[in-house]
Amino acid sequence: xxxxxxxxxxxxxxxxxxxxxxxxxxxxxxxxxxxxxxxxxxxxxxxxxxxxxxxxxxxxxxxxxxxxxxxxxxxxxxxxxxxxxxxxxxxxxxxxxxxxxxxxxxxxxxxxxxxxxxxxxxxx
Length: 124
Known about the structure:
By secondary structure, the protein is α+β, with helices and mostly antiparallel strands.
């Protein structure tokens, strides 16, 4: 019987590949990619046409880490990261994005990050 974590990883990669067939980021509408580990959450705005990362934020970013001293929950931290990514995007005059959940189910921390980005002014 295979290990549960290996099975989950295989299923996530299958979902990720299926999603990436249709989602493409451009300079006008970059792709907001989410990655989550057990402790941290990361978000990047990527232009797939020129293959560059426009901006990125995570719970390890210095500006965000200072805000997270009073936040205990992972969902609260994800919301702050989403708001920070939205602020960085608006500084670069980006208002519309394509959301790439990277195979993760759309609930919990992934949903909180998306809600934080919407609250910050990004349109999906």
